[in-house]
Design goal:
Elements (H helix, E strand, L loop, with lengths): L1 E5 L8 H20 L1 H11 L3 H10 L4 H4 L1 H4 L7 H22 L1 H22 L11 H14 L4 E5 L8 E5 H19 L9 H18 L2
Antiparallel strand pairs: 1-2, 2-3
Helix pairs in contact: 1-6, 6-7, 6-8, 7-8, 7-10, 8-9, 8-10, 9-10
């Protein structure tokens, strides 16, 4: 399923949503111009490596730099499909959450969901040496918040049933729980599969955080 749009128009300009999208593409551009030789070190430094984070936390629990990867990794991506998919979801669902929370609270909500998503991934896979990157955890929080605030919204969704591609109006109350169920299924599988390559538990943790926290942040 691929969401195309929802049926809830923005009441104000989604400036923070647009700014987050621009920031993500800016940092992705920085990744592209680095070249392969420098990119690995860049990702390892600014991405979140669970094993490295835990080791540094044990050594320097009161250093600001220890916690920086919990936020900086939200602005890094592993390829064009990764960033385009994330930014498309943020564009569709972020504006309505920004409407409800206001600019500043939406930004804080977004970052906090991302941090909690990262924490969930660390807890589930603390020994991983693979960098966790991407805005998926924070955007999962946006999805969780959307389900809480707009359960009756309808999502125009492209269904890839080859050779036809019907577009169905699916209620958010069905679309988003189904999305979350897929994350849970894949996350459970990842517990028994080395090198899954996707931080499923960051998606799960972010979604749960957004669902539970959005009313606290709501204007």
């Amino acid at each position: 399923m691929f969401p195309l749009r929802d049926n809830i128009p923005s009441r104000s300009r989604p400036l923070v949503t647009v700014a987050l999208i621009v920031a993500n593409f800016y940092f992705f551009y920085q990744e592209l111009i680095l070249g392969e030789a420098a990119l690995g070190g860049f990702i390892k430094t600014w991405g979140l490596v669970p094993a490295d984070f835990i080791a540094r936390f044990a050594r320097e629990p009161f250093q600001y730099a220890t916690y920086l990867p919990l936020v900086s990794n939200l602005f890094l991506h592993g390829g064009w499909m990764h960033i385009l998919g994330n930014m498309w979801y943020l564009w569709i669902f972020g504006d309505n959450i920004e409407d409800c929370l206001g600019k500043i609270r939406f930004f804080l909500f977004y970052v906090l969901c991302g941090v909690i998503a990262n924490a969930a991934q660390i807890i589930v896979d603390p020994g991983s040496t693979i960098p966790t990157i991407g805005a998926s955890g924070a955007i999962s929080g946006v999805l969780g918040g959307y389900l809480m605030l707009f359960p009756r919204a309808r999502i125009a969704t492209l269904i890839p049933l080859f050779p036809i591609f019907p577009i169905l109006q699916i209620p958010a109350l069905l679309f988003l729980p189904l999305w979350f169920f897929i994350q849970l299924q894949q996350g459970a599988l990842a517990l028994f599969t080395a090198g899954a390559g996707i931080a499923w538990w960051a998606h799960i943790g972010g979604f749960a955080a957004g669902f539970l926290l959005v009313r606290i942040f709501k204007a």
